[in-house]
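User: Second chain of the day. Same drill as before.
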Amino acid sequence: MQFINTFTTLALLLSIATGAPPVSVNARNSHLYEDGNGQGDGQLKTAQAIYFNTNDPTGNAVITIRVAEDGLLAMGNKFTTRGKGGIGINATTGKPALPDPLFSQDSVRVGDDFLFVVNAGSNSLSMFSIDTANPTYLTMLGEPVDTQGEFPVSVAYSSALKQACVVNGGAVSNVACYTVDGTAGLAPVEDFMVKDFGLNQTTPPMGPLSTVSDIFFSPDSSGLHVTIKGPNFGEGSLLSFPCNIETGLCEAPTANKPNGTAVLFGSSFVNNTTFLAADASFGAVTIQIDKTATGFEQTLLSTTRINEQRATCWSAFSRKTNTVFVTDALVNHIVEINPVDGSVVSTVNLTNGDEGNLDVQVGGDFLYALSPLKESVSVAILDSSGGPGAPKEKQTFSIKGVMGQSSTGMQVFPAVSP
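Assistant: Same format as last time:
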């Protein structure tokens, strides 16, 4: 596909600071948000903080940005993960796979008052506590833990299980889970360790095909799911692990290849049994997943084909609009999808001059999209307070000096589940 070659033609050289000064943020076309707050009640007007994974191979860090009540981004901080970022290899050119160096969504995850981030270059997972009074301040809990595989690319968290699970996408590709302690940090769940997926990958992995895309829990924690891109544009794969809240264990997965999928990527649940997954080859699919006595049964509900798409990879569900927003690394638009029937509700063609967008998150009335594709990393913001089909471009912020083209992953605080 065209996006494989196009990724390698981007030659942006962005510097990443090695110290820990406040983040410098410049606003372009500044506007104000509505006032409001909330904690997971679906009535949140705006997020309180945004987090990014620098994924720096020389020393990974989390960048925090404050979202003020008027919607403007304020100065934040930089916190080392005590690990290293990693960069995959473009299978076509043999060069570093930039942007999208991990071929994944959710390399950083927020749940409860915790933040988790993968260190792909050092095969480890770091955990932080979030200061709820000032969410731009993080405190590392314990030390980074070994991910029991190679090249971790995505992390999931279950509040009910009090567990974080990481998926490795390198030569040793598997899933490992950890108990979460608000003081001590992470400890391996010794009874849970899945065997190698059999991707026949390298470390770092060659992609984007035949790489791991995302790991995520069902909203009710009844299952843990992993999406994998199909080889040679064959069918994508979905692995689903049944989880038992009473025992705290997730069992051997059910493997399925949803019909018509090829390059399954970032996924977002819209209720306990239905999620939308981006597919870089055509747009997105909506999948229903039902737990049975022997595992999970998966049903393809709808297929969304997006006109003029080139690499639709990331997704985020909005409780405000009951729609899912997806982004494209090579087309500077944000597409809103109705997950019930798969129809395109709206398309916002951004006017900020960026070349495309990667990770996307929703915080109340607003949507945030990360673009590390030009001279400075930027975040586009859309206002969706007008309801389904009416998102509007509000502003774009440039983040200079601490993030570069290897940056990937974004989360908001507080995190709100379907």
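Residues 2-9 form the longest helix (8 residues).

User: Great, on to the next one.
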